[in-house]
Amino acid sequence: MDNNQNPQDGNINIELNEMVAAGVYANLALVNHSPSEFILDFIQLMPGVQQAKVRSRVILAPLHAKRVLNALQQNIASYEQQFGEIKEVEPFVLGQNTPQA
């Protein structure tokens, strides 16, 4: 994106520093909500270890949560069209089984 563009044009500049760009690994997500927000906890669960760590928490307004849902649905459909169906091995129940990598 051109740095000369301004928000009045409907464009924004997004900064992504190196630490955030590296990302965090999560193999479990928990979602909770209140009347005013959705809370997404991204967790790293190691096989055979009873203690799991929340690696990142994202808090969203309901409208933004719905936009994230729509973006994920579109991206999953695109992914599956290109690479094939994503198959779930078995339902995951917290505390009863370990997610497969």
UniProtKB/TrEMBL annotation:
InterPro entries for the chain: DUF3467
Pfam name, any one = DUF3467
Name of protein: Transcriptional accessory protein
Query: Which organism was this protein described from?
Result: Elizabethkingia anophelis NUHP1
Taxonomic classification = Bacteria, Pseudomonadati, Bacteroidota, Flavobacteriia, Flavobacteriales
